[in-house]
Amino acid sequence: MLSPVVWVKDKFDEWWEHYMALVDISKENTRLRSELERARAEAMLAAEDRMELERLRALLGLEALRERPAFAARVIAKRFGPQAVLKTFTINKGFLDGAVTGTPVVIQNGVVGRVLRASPHAATVLMLTDPGFRLAVISRDSRTPGIITGSISGQRRLEMAYVAQNARIMVGEVLITAGIDASFPKGIPVGVVTQVTPGNEILFQQVHAQAIVDLERVEEVLLLMEEGSAPPALPPAQADRPAERPTNAQR
After folding, report:
1. How far is CA 209 from the centre of its chain?
2. Residue 241 half-sphere exposure, CB side, CA atoms within 13 Å?
3. What is residue 98's DSSP assignment?
4. Which of 10, 54, 159, 194 has the most CB atoms lying inside 10 A of its own CB?
5. What CATH architecture does domain 134-214 belong to?
């Protein structure tokens, strides 16, 4: 008479053991999933840190650093599109760090822009492609001089002004800084010539170029300082003075 009862009890004990084992397995799976997600997140952060380290190492290998001291800054905000009055971005260094108005801004590939205005701990950089930007350049092969300006059309489009009618300049030539305005050192890449049109009714050729640096993808930049200088600590009277917009000569 007790055999059925014992059988039921044994079956219940066996089922309970399986159930508890499944509960333990479920808890273990939940723990392993949590650890896997945490490991994936750490791997993603490590990959991003490695990429940032590679970019910073490339910045430190810039040829211009042999002539000028420099310091790095991170891009913290950008302004693009038709609603932006100026093509600018904001960096996390200000005039207390040495990012004063007119400071050249570059990356390892070439010219980015110039500091337009600065606060104590942040600065606005006017990009190379803004129509108000001006920079003396020469073509690397034919050594033809000119002035690079930004353009209202296209994110990377540039125009090279004051190229004489008889000057020799070819599509595909690299434009580099001329080093005659005492801001950018000579030889930093600026753009590549994309179109040359003779000016039939004017004294100069119409030369179009494309910026070498893809400004939409810039995350870290280098600010070039004057030779022998160090990041200044400005007095309070000068620190409280509002930054002025640079004139065309300063640009």
Report:
1. 20
2. 11
3. T
4. 159
5. Beta Barrel (2.40)
Single out the residue of 225, 55, 45, 213 nearest to residue 127, CA to CA. Answer: 213
The phi and psi torsions of 56 (rounded to 5 degrees) equal -65, -35
Neighbours of 50 (CB within 10 A): 10
Q: What is the structure's pLDDT at 160?
A: 94
Residue type, 153: S
Please tell me the distance from the alpha carbon of residue 213 to that of residue 165, in angstroms, as a whole number: 28
Other beta carbons within 10 angstroms of residue 117's beta carbon come to 20
Handedness of CA 99, 101, 103, 105 (dihedral sign): positive
Mean pLDDT confidence for 142-161: 88
> For tokens 């990041």, what's the residue?
231
Residue 131 and residue 173: Cα distance in Å, rounded?
Answer: 22
Other CB atoms within 10 A of residue 1 CB: 4
Count of residues for the chain? 251
Angle at 193 between CA 190 and CA 196, to 5 degrees: 145
CATH number of 67-127+216-239: 2.40.10.340
Question: What are 71-107's pLDDT values in tens digits?
Answer: 889 999 887 555 557 889 999 999 998 899 999 999 8
Strands 70-79 and 145-150: unpaired
Amino acid at 74: R
Nearest to 142 by CA among 111, 117, 163, 113: 163
